[in-house]
UniProtKB/TrEMBL annotation:
The chain crosses the membrane at residues 21-43, 55-74, 86-110, 116-133, 163-181. PROSITE patterns: EAL, GGDEF. Keywords: Membrane, Transmembrane, Transmembrane helix. This is Diguanylate cyclase (GGDEF)-like protein. CDD domains: EAL, GGDEF.
Length: 638
C-alpha cells in the first residue's frame, strides 16, 4: 500500500473534511485570547473615562466597550459544542481584527502619538497568529502594516525610513510565524485525517468478509443489535448452500471460493430492496429484511433468490450446482433479542434442511417450547461429561437361515444428570444442528468398538453415521484410526447411512463410502424405500447391505402390495449380492407372513429389543451353547 506523506495546504487541496479540521484546530488558539482581550478593552473603557470628556469620551467608550462585548460574544460562540465551519470562523477572526484595528486607529486619528505606532506591529503579530486562513492573515497583516506605513509617512525622512524598515521586518516575521504555525497545524491535521482514514478502512476491513466483501459476522450482529434497540420491525434469516461442501472437497478450495462468491452475487440482488446480506461462516449467511414485509412477500422474495442460486454455475468451464435452504424469524413478533432471533432463525433453517430442503421456512411461535428444549439439550451436549453420560444399547440382527444372531446395531442413548433420559431422536437432531454430532459419534463409536472386542469373531457391529459424519473426510479417517488402534478386523464393522444423509451431498458421501469400503468396512443403506430415490442409490453407491424401512413391514399383514414390494426388494438384493434386513418385525404373525419371502436378516422386537452390552454378551454366549449342543446332538444322531 502506497501512502503519501501529509502535505501542507500549498500541495493538497482543502476538502470539506480538512477545512473542518482546520477550523477546529484554530478554535483552541482563539478562545484563550478572547477573554483577556475582553478584559483589556473593559480596562481601556475605564481608562477613557479617566482621560476623556464629552464627545470623545462617548466615542472611545462606545468603540472599546463594543469591542469587549463582541469579544465575549465570540468566546461564547466558540464555546458552543459542535463543529464550526471554516468560513464562519474566518468572519469571526476578521471582525475580531477589525475591532482591534479600529480601537487603535480611532485613537491615533485624534491623538497622533508616535510612540503608539508600534502597536501596529503588535497587531500584525496577533493577526498572523489568530488567522485561520492564509487570506485572512494576509489581509489583516497588510491592513495593520499598511496603516503603520501611512501614519509614518508624515514623519521626518529618517524616522519614516526606520518605521518602514520595522514594517517590512514585521511583515516577514509575522508571515513566517504564521506559516510555521499553520504548517505545524496542517501536518497534525493531515496525520490525524490519515489516521482516521486508515481507521475507517481498517473498520471496513474488520466489518467485511475477506472472501466475498459482504458484512461479516461481527458487523451483521452489530446491525441486528442496532435494529433491535431502535425497535423497528425486520425479518432475520439464515441460509446456507446445499451440496457446497462436496464441491469444495472434490474441486478444491479455489473453485469452492469462486462458487461461493458467485452464489453471494446472486443472493445479493435482494440488497436492492434494502436487504443486508452477511456471511457468518463457511457457506452460512444471514439476511436482514427491514420494514413491514408480509410473510407471503418474504417467501416470494427469498424463494426467488433460492431458485436463482440453484441455477448451475460455470466455474473454470465446469458446471457446478448447489441449492439453498433458509430459515427466517420476525422482530418483534416472534423474538425480542438478538440471541433469541438468531436461535429461532437457526432452528427454522435446520427444519428447512431436514424437512423442506430448498425452501424458506418461517419460525412459528408454537415451536418455542421445542426450541427451548433443543437449546437446553445443546447446552448440556456442550457442557456435560458425554464420555460418561452417553452409552449404547444393541439390537440383534437375526438370520432365520442360520438360526443365529449375526450382528448387532448400536443404538445411541443419553442419560443426562440435569435433563434425565433424553431420547435419541431429540439429542441426535440437536447435535446435528449445533455441529456437535461428530463429538458424539466419536465417543459412541469408541464404546462400540470396546464392546465388539468382547464378542465372537463371527459377530459384527452395525454403527450409524449422520450426514455431517459422512461428509467430513478428516472425521471418517479418524474413525478408521480408532479401528486400527482397536486391532479389530474392519470386516466386522458395518456403517449405516440413511438416504437423507446421502442426498444432502451425494458426491462427498460416495467418496467417503469408498474410503470406508476400501479399508474393509461394510456399508448399509438404512430406511430403504422411505425416500423418493432409494432404488437409484443401489446403483450409485457401493453398498453391502440394505435395510427395508419398517413402514413396509408394518403393512405386510394388511397389504398384498406391500408384500410384493418387500418380496421384490429381497429378490433384487439377492441378485445384486446385497444382504437384506427387514426392520421392525415385532410379532409372530408378521414373521409367519414374511417366512414365505425367504428373508435374509430380521431386526425387531420379535428377536430382541435394544439391550445392554451385558445382555448382548449373554445372548451370544447362550447362542454359542445352543450351537454346541445342536452340533453334539447331530454327532450323536449320526
Amino acid at each position: 500500500m502506497n501512502i503519501a506523506p501529509p502535505v501542507d495546504q500549498r500541495r493538497k487541496p482543502e476538502d470539506a473534511t480538512r477545512q473542518q479540521a482546520i477550523a477546529q484546530s484554530y478554535v483552541p488558539i482563539l478562545r484563550p485570547i478572547l477573554i483577556p482581550a475582553c478584559a483589556y478593552y473593559v480596562f481601556v473603557t475605564w481608562e477613557h473615562s479617566q482621560t476623556q470628556t464629552g464627545a470623545l469620551l462617548a466615542m472611545y467608550s462606545f468603540i472599546s466597550m463594543t469591542t469587549a462585548v463582541s469579544f465575549y460574544f465570540f468566546h461564547r460562540l466558540l464555546s458552543v459544542k459542535g463543529k464550526i465551519e471554516l468560513p464562519r470562523l474566518e468572519v469571526i477572526t476578521l471582525m475580531m481584527h477589525l475591532f482591534m484595528y479600529f480601537n487603535l486607529v480611532s485613537y491615533l486619528l485624534v491623538y497622533n502619538v508616535q510612540t503608539r505606532y508600534i502597536y501596529f506591529v503588535v497587531l500584525a503579530f496577533i493577526f498572523a497568529i489568530t488567522s485561520a486562513t492564509t487570506r485572512t492573515m494576509l489581509a489583516s497583516v497588510s491592513l495593520a502594516l499598511g496603516t503603520l506605513y501611512w501614519f509614518a509617512s508624515s514623519l521626518p525622512a529618517d524616522l519614516f525610513a526606520e518605521y518602514a524598515s520595522i514594517a517590512v521586518a514585521t511583515a516577514f516575521a509575522a508571515i513566517s510565524i504564521a506559516g510555521l504555525l499553520r504548517r505545524a497545524i496542517l501536518r497534525q491535521i493531515d496525520a490525524r485525517l490519515l489516521a482516521d482514514e486508515l481507521t475507517v478502512k481498517a473498520r471496513a476491513l474488520a466489518d467485511s468478509d475477506m472472501l466475498t466483501g459482504i458484512p461479516n459476522r461481527r458487523a451483521i450482529f452489530e446491525q441486528i443489535d442496532l435494529m433491535v434497540a431502535r425497535r423497528k420491525p425486520f425479518w432475520l434469516g439464515i441460509f446456507d448452500l446445499d451440496g457446497f461442501k462436496g464441491i469444495n472437497d472434490v474441486y478444491g478450495h479455489v473453485t469452492g471460493d469462486r462458487l461461493l462468491c458467485a452464489a453471494v452475487d446472486r443472493a445479493s440482488e435482494m440488497v436492492s430492496a434494502g436487504v443486508t446480506i452477511g456471511r457468518i461462516g463457511g457457506d452460512e449467511f444471514v439476511a436482514i429484511v427491514p420494514g413491514d414485509v408480509t410473510e407471503a412477500e418474504l417467501r416470494q422474495r427469498v424463494e426467488s433468490r433460492i431458485r436463482a442460486m440453484s441455477v448451475p454455475y460455470i466455474i473454470d468451464q465446469i458446471e457446478l450446482t448447489v441449492g439453498a435452504s433458509a430459515g427466517f424469524t420476525h422482530f418483534p413478533d416472534t423474538g425480542l433479542s438478538t440471541g433469541q432471533l438468531y436461535e429461532q432463525a437457526d432452528f427454522a433453517l435446520y427444519k428447512a434442511k431436514s424437512q423442506f430442503r430448498g425452501q424458506c421456512v418461517l419460525f412459528d411461535t408454537a415451536e418455542n417450547t421445542e426450541m427451548k428444549q433443543a437449546i437446553a439439550i445443546e447446552r448440556e451436549l456442550r457442557e456435560g461429561n458425554l464420555a460418561e453420560e452417553l452409552y449404547l444399547l444393541f439390537q440383534p440382527q437375526y438370520s432365520p437361515g442360520e438360526n443365529r444372531v449375526l450382528s448387532f446395531e448400536a443404538l445411541a442413548r443419553w442419560q443426562s444428570p440435569k435433563l434425565g433420559r433424553v431420547g435419541p431422536d431429540q439429542f441426535i437432531r440437536v447435535a446435528e444442528r449445533s455441529g456437535s454430532i461428530q463429538k458424539l459419534t466419536s465417543i459412541l463409536f469408541q464404546k462400540g468398538l470396546a464392546e465388539l472386542a468382547t464378542w465372537p469373531q463371527d459377530v459384527s457391529l452395525s454403527f450409524n453415521l449422520s450426514a455431517r459424519d459422512i461428509s467430513d473426510q478428516a472425521f471418517i479417517l479418524s474413525l478408521l484410526g480408532q479401528i486400527m488402534k482397536s486391532e479389530l478386523s474392519p470386516s466386522r464393522i458395518e456403517f449405516e447411512i440413511t438416504e437423507t444423509a446421502v442426498m444432502s451431498d451425494l458426491v462427498t458421501a460416495t467418496n467417503m463410502i469408498e474410503i470406508l469400503r476400501s479399508s474393509g468396512c461394510k456399508i448399509a443403506l438404512d430406511d430403504f424405500g422411505s425416500g423418493y430415490s432409494s432404488f437409484g442409490y443401489l446403483d450409485q453407491l457401493p453398498l453391502d447391505k440394505v435395510k427395508i424401512d419398517r413402514s413396509f413391514i408394518r403393512r405386510v399383514p394388511h397389504s398384498a402390495t406391500s408384500r410384493e414390494i418387500v418380496s421384490g426388494i429381497i429378490s433384487l438384493c439377492r441378485k445384486l449380492d446385497l444382504r437384506c434386513v427387514l426392520e421392525g418385525v415385532e410379532t409372530e404373525d408378521e414373521m409367519t407372513l414374511l417366512e414365505s419371502l425367504n428373508p435374509d436378516l430380521i431386526q425387531g422386537y420379535l428377536y430382541g429389543r435394544p439391550m445392554s452390552g451385558d445382555d448382548a454378551r449373554r445372548m451370544l454366549s447362550d447362542q454359542q451353547v445352543s450351537a454346541a449342543i445342536e452340533a453334539s446332538d447331530q454327532l450323536i444322531t449320526a
